[in-house]
Structures are given as C-alpha cells and as structure tokens.
Design goal:
42% helix, Nucleoside Triphosphate Pyrophosphohydrolase, elongated, 7 strands, alpha+beta, Endonuclease III, domain 1
Amino acid sequence: MKNKGTEEVSLLIIDWYREHKRSLPWRDTCDPYKIWVSEIILQQTRVAQGLDYYLRFIGRFPTVAALAAAEDDEVMRLWQGLGYYSRARNLHKAARMVAAGGGCFPQSYAGVRALPGIGDYTAAAICSMAYGMPYAVVDGNVYRVLARCFGIGEPIDTAQGKKYFSALASELLPAGCPGLYNQAIMDFGALQCVPQSPDCGSCPLEAKCVACAERRVEEFPVKARRQRVADVYLHYIYVRVGDAVCLRRRVSELPGGKKKPGLFSPSIWQGLYELPLVVAEQPLAPEEFLGSEDFGRFFPSDAERQSASVSLLRREVLHRLSHRVLHLNFYSVQLPPDSLSFPGFLRVPHSELPAYPVPRPIAALWKELGL
C-alpha cells in the first residue's frame, strides 16, 4: 500500500511531464536496444549533446546485430568527442555477447543487468521503458528531486544513503506506468528541479517540498565526501615522418615512461589513438621538456635528436575530466622518411587520419592544423 503523500508526488510529476516532456526519438519506441543505446549515451552527457550522437549511432548500427558486427575503431570513431569511452567499449562488448547468445536482447532484469556496462540505473530504465517492469531509476536527477522534496539529509554517496533513496524511489513508482514515471522524474530533475537556482515558484511540488519550505534548496542532495580533482601535465608530440604522423592506440600501459599508472590511467581514452606522449607530475617549461630524458628516449641517438626540427605548437591547453584537470602542451617534430626515431608507433598518412578515433584535444589540434 503506497503512502498517500508519495502517491500524490508521483502523480504531480507525471502531470508535469505530460505538459513539458521533451520530444526525443528513444521515447517513441519500446525497442530495448535503442533505449539501451540512449541511456548509455546520456550517462555523463547532456541531452542536447547526446541527441546527434544517438541519431548517428542508430543510423549506422540500427540493430544489436549491426553493432556486434562492427569493427572496434568504427565504434570508437562514432563515439569520439562524447568522452567516458569505456561506455562505448562496454556497449560493443555487450552487443557481441547478445549476438553470440542468439541475437535476442535479454527480457529479464537479471539478464539485462548482467550485460557489461549496465548497472542498476540503466537496467531499471531499460526494463521499465521497454517491458513495463516495476523498477525505479535512481540517478543524479532523482536524488536531487527526492532529497529536496522530502528534505532527506542522508548522504547520497554512502551505501546506506543509496539504499534509502532506492527504497523511496520504488515506493514512488506507480504500478501501472513505471516507464512513464521514470522518464517523468528524470525530465523533472533535468528541466524543473535543476541543480542551481531552480524556479520553485513554478514547481508543482512547491507546496510539498521540504527544502523549499525551509529555504534550503541549494543544500540538497547531501554528499559525505567530495572527489579530489588532480592536475596532470601532458606533453603531446605531433611527429611527422615524411608525410606520415606517428600514432599509437591507448591500451594497457602508459606511453611515455616511468610515471606511476595512477597519474594518468590507461583507462582514460582507452581504445583511442594518440600522439607520442610524456606524462608529468609537475608543469615543465618547453625548454625543460625538450631537454628531458623522457623526450630523449624517443630518439635512437643524440645526433638524430639534435637534427630533428622541433617547435612548440600549443601551450597550456586545459581539458577537464571528472576527476582530472589536464594541462596539455603540443610540440611539433619533423623527421625524414627514413628516421628510426619514435619506434613502436604507427606511421599514418595525413589523408588517413580521419579514420582513426582520437581524444577531443587531439581532434581539436587536427582541426586547427586543417587536417
């Protein structure tokens, strides 16, 4: 039996949604594959940015079988610029698992939840929207709406807090329309109950909202701890060997040397291609970097190092990740076609560079250089 107060909140959110919902392509389908792709894209990505990626992705891979049959580089290239590239790798891996199992997308919560890259939230979204199963979504938007409406001081980043909010979200879930309600509360948090300066005067929950009544809207939701953001200094080298550019795919080890893996984890941008790289713990002036042992290790001899044409392309380019601030310097090195420097790197003709998925800062460099 639902609490009358929670039932009223659910109905108010659904009524608001019917009037204000956004027209989005994945809302016009019960296809679990398309809902899955949309949910993975929208993790850590705003709808405005993710929509075009979704349309291109579904246009190229309209079925799970099409995605399963794709080459890794093609999937990563379509994902280029979205960030959090483990999402694309897991999406591709899961599609291949589904294809290997007969090609039918799982039709149970446990089966969906078992796929790589799918957690409780994504499984609940897929199962409720595609199959009408009674599973409540709990994401950042939901945490914020519930914490403010009910004045919940339980931190959302603790095991106890997550359990509490999950139970409350399940209590709010209407039995006859779980998918509709899940989409409604997500849109409500994204458009109405926004993180900063929400318009409480136009909110249908204003009369029921504890945070609004207590003038503490900005205090919710509560977090027990804040993630430390670290500075990382990256020195990329745009190496031209004749008409080719040196690239290497980021895999299981750090390029550039002896720095500890935690500084710039190989999982960041894994599967993308990048220029030769040196990672530093502290900022280095160009003359310090070019005179360093790390830079020198790319050359087989001091003579070849001295004969290389070297220049600074871009300095102190900032790129922010969720837990890192990257400070990037880009250098240019021109070598003759028969050079033995930079061993172990692919030598990619300029005309073929667009076929290689690269991180956003390198894509920006390509654009600046007219490549």
